[in-house]
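Suppose a classmate hands you a notebook page containing two proteins, each written out with its sequence and a corresponding row of structure tokens. How would you begin to make sense of it? This section walks through that situation. The first entry is reproduced here exactly as it would appear on such a page.
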Amino acid sequence: MKIHTGKKWQNGFLDYYCSKKEYRIQVLAWKNLEKIEGAYYIRPKSLKMALRYLPVVGFYGLFTKAWSRFREQRRNDKYVSCGIGKIIETGDNSEFKNNDIIAFIAPFHPHLVERLTLPQEFIFNINKDILPQLSSKEILLCSLNQRSESNHWWQDVISWSIYSGRDISQELKKRLEQGLIQEIKNTNWNNCEKINTQIPTIIKETKGEVKKLDSRKTGVLFGFGNYAKTNIISFMKPFVNITTIHEIDPTQIWQKSAQKWDSSPFPRDNEKYDVYFVASYNHTHAPITLNALKQGAYAVVEKPVAMDYEELEEIEKAIKQFGPKIFIGFHKRYSIFNDWAKKDLGVNSGDPISYHSVVYEISQPKYFWYSWPISRSTFFANGCHQIDHFLHLNDFSKPKDFDIKLLQDNAIEVWIELENGAVFTTVFSEKGSTRVGPRDHVELKVPGKNIRITDNIFYLAEDETRIIRKRKMYKTNSYRDMYIKIGKRIANNEQGDSLKSIMVSTKLMLDLEEKLQRQKGWGDQYIKAKEKFWSYFK
């Protein structure tokens, strides 16, 4: 389809995926209401910032990061808009019929799209008396600089997504309808720009065809964000032929990165690959991973592998039935620092290594998807790295006691005691400097020896009389090493992460998250959000 982006009406984009509970709409009139700020991490274009990152990530890391962010400019240009359209697909819905002329709210979309998909909550009947002169051969476009003053009636649905788990109450829907109809009435559509659509594009949710195969295993990637661009695509290339990429945002598609593209969030019924790379929204990880295991395929999945106990139980059953073919993207497990630490501390496998850390994560943008109720807490999404690293160094000895506390400035304290005698403490906070991104300070301890790891860059081991080892590496090296090691294991048909490591690490994080959820007073927020999300897809 066509999208108005970069001040141009451009062709070649995939259509949005249309679930059975959504309608596909041909746009006839479109009005931008507000440009959305704070939906993504957007760094300023600054030479000083680039120079600050150079010692942290190196030349290659800086280049790939900058190139990836540059390619996200179209994605970042999002608006809340409203308009008038014609229903062209109905799915399992019956409220509206094909060819019905309706009014709609587009809560999280580019400057203008030729077509879009929306659930019933954002579609409304409209009286023919207030319709402007419409044509199937053009779209009336009212950009922001042409709109009149408004009362921001759309405020409660800014950046709403079918993937968010956010419910639209009947009361809110009624307010939205009133605001929308009044907005359409008050708009001078005669002064709007007219976008030519005389030659409509064909509806396509997929693009391309897999033709080039070689001796490598075939792979599919879900989620084409910055992490996937800079790590998965780059480092897995020697081992896996990633032929297909699933990406729900049409503006993210970069044709050269794959032979085939698909806007579906989940695998199609006829898809089959040797390796599934899962870097999509956290709450989609488990279903895609389970699909891979049932096919006998590998799943390389970003953390977390499960969002709740039910999903973890399903994964445990699948591993026992189909084999251990999951690799979780915990990069700290693959750091060269681990080998040095065990040698410098003089410990054997299973010996207790106590772990103490102070962690700073960048504060989330206001409308970033981590704020969705279905995403759970940012601690669950990001605090898992240090906890999993601690468990990994202690051969996943089982926890015998633990607790978590939410402090008055929203920092989080955690302590854990393991059966092997190791102890863990951490303070997790989103308050601090964003100068070079997330920071962490880790100390590993055994009697008479100490190791300090700062930002996964600086390593220092010492005993009571001397410095044993002092080293430095680029922060991104552990990601590279992780994918190279995983890639080699997949190429050699080796087993994935052990069932014990998956169960101990994920179960502990879920236990801590449940306690934190109660302290935050969230009640059954996640459960309701999960039900809402799946109501669109089942």
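The notebook's second entry, a different protein, reads as follows.
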Amino acid sequence: MYYHKTKIERKKQCLKKLILGLLALFLLAGGGILFFLSTLAPAQEEYISYDKEKQIALIDKQLEGIDLEKVRKKEKLIKEKSIDEIQNSIAKNELTYTELTAFYLDRIKTYDAGAKGINAVSEINPKAIEEAKAHDLKKDTPKGVSGIPVLIKDNVNTNTLPTSGGAYALKDFTPKNNADLVDALQKHGAILLGKSNLSEMANFMARKMPSGYSSKTGQTHNPFDPIELSPEGSSSGSGAALAANFASIAIGTETTGSIIAPSAVHSLAGFKPTKDSISTKGILPLSSTIDTAGAMAKNVKDALRLYNASLSDPKKEISDHLDENFIKGKRIGLVSGNQDQLLEEKLKTAGAEVVAISLDEKNIDNGFIIDQDFKKDLNKYLKENNAPVKSLEELIRFNEKDLKRRAKYGQDLIESANDVKDFDRKKVDSMVKDAKTRLNKTLDENKLDAIVFLNNDGVLLPSVAGFPEFTVPAGITEKGTPAGATFVTKEKEDEKILNLAYSFEQKTKARVVPERYLKDRE
């Protein structure tokens, strides 16, 4: 849920750069210094995957009797296509829901499982093809997410598939009840394709743990540059799976940047709505103060369709009639950073008026908020859902029995949270209030329609405040990595942010598609 580059991951990256420099400087100083420095460095990603044989078997069984050569020839109707385009092909009898679902399962087996696979998928629905065939038998007009395969992040309760949060202790735990958002998706006819991997315990397991790793599934890789480019997260699997076309849409969750970061680095549309727009009931928590569920897709309209289909209250649905010229003339505050020129050019190309601004994050500490919430929130979830372990303390002790598999990179973050004894709700509430006040003041005093920053560089304030965020592909950085323009508007201005995001997307057309992972499998 819950990646925050500003606090944890940024410290990891800065520390890594420092250590590499010191390693070079002290190369001749002997093994003692080198060993000490190496123990501080964040771990490099590895090709690690667990229990993929089970997934492959589930896929093979479902694909029996299906003409895969015929399915693969439908690639041009599926790969990189929007939900509307896919539904149109189905309406014209050029494609079936069975072929659509089989196409994704075939790709997961080919590019996700096994040696040097992306490893983005943690569970496969054994009835996915059965559900798709049922949709093909219906005579309803294809629309919305009905019949569309969706991946659900593996911290969201599903009563037919395990929900683990990436923890080994929960790898076989199937909750009795769905999360509210899963019930809503099924009511709208979405096909639950499977679960996506995540950074274990919402990237709140260990400082040395790479983003995208879990003790249940292993290491997810970024298809743009596996091993070298982080998938970021914790919604790492959802991001990597969509970028590699393993599904049409995916659910992500966020505490501080974990929809935004993986969406940006995978050149996706990522929507973190106003807090509590989508119910978080039935989601393994990190911080009830900040946790938010949201939508990840390859384009803005698909993210909107997924958002609407995830709502328990249909009154909150937002019209899909978005304005491609909405951004024209809008006053946008661009947060200062090292990629100002990239975003400024894109925003001006889209017709926006750009104003340079800065954000005051002083004394806003999402780490403190998480430490205040995590133990009590997790303990409540584990007990209410009758999980195999009933508390954070039990989870830690369980992991200690086999650290090599159950906590490969340690568990210092959850151990630290478990040691918290002093709880200060007043301080947490004060931070949330201050974050809201500062954002509103910045928007009002500068007469801004929205704030924009690169990737997840400014997520702290809107995350703590509970304001909506939407990241849209913005091309490639100087280093050749995908970039996202992340918009922020006031609380409950979700319709406005969707129109801004859609307009920016249509004016810039900056999404890029990964190819490196294909070459790695040749």
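A careful reader of the second entry would note: The first strand starts at residue 121 and ends at 124.
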